[in-house]
């Protein structure tokens, strides 16, 4: 297995990782599958302040008065190459553990917060 960064944003900013799975076939190491985990390219507006309005609603705004956007709305897991059928169980286990690590990160602040 090897892991490398996926740099798709301007300036070479990292936007995800690519995991390559290998197996031995006829005495040679052969790539059997790729798995890419990354943020999509959609821009999302963010705010740092919420203020009440006169009619009881709320207004989202930024303290500096400027619109702010961040890259990535959804976290996408994809498999770009057709994978060998022997890799299906490994891919399923890897995707499951990846999702558990993401949930642990957003729940506890660390992907290592619990034993997977």
Summed up:
With 116 residues, the chain is of the alpha+beta class. It is 18% helix and 43% strand.
List the helices and strands and how they pair.
Elements lengths: L1 E6 L6 E12 L2 E12 L3 E4 L2 E4 L5 E4 L6 E4 L3 E4 L9 H21 L8
Antiparallel strand pairs: 1-2, 2-3, 3-8, 4-7, 5-6
Q: What does this molecule look like?
A:
By secondary structure, the protein is α+β, with helices and mostly antiparallel strands. It has a domain at 2-40 and 73-108. It is 18% helix and 43% strand. The chain has one helix and eight strands. The strands form three sheets. A four-stranded antiparallel beta sheet has the order 1-2-3-8, with no helix packed on it. Strands 4-7 form a two-stranded antiparallel sheet. Strands 5-6 form a two-stranded antiparallel ribbon. A hairpin with a 2-residue loop joins strand 2 (14-25) and strand 3 (28-39). The two termini are 19 Å apart. 3% of the residues are buried.
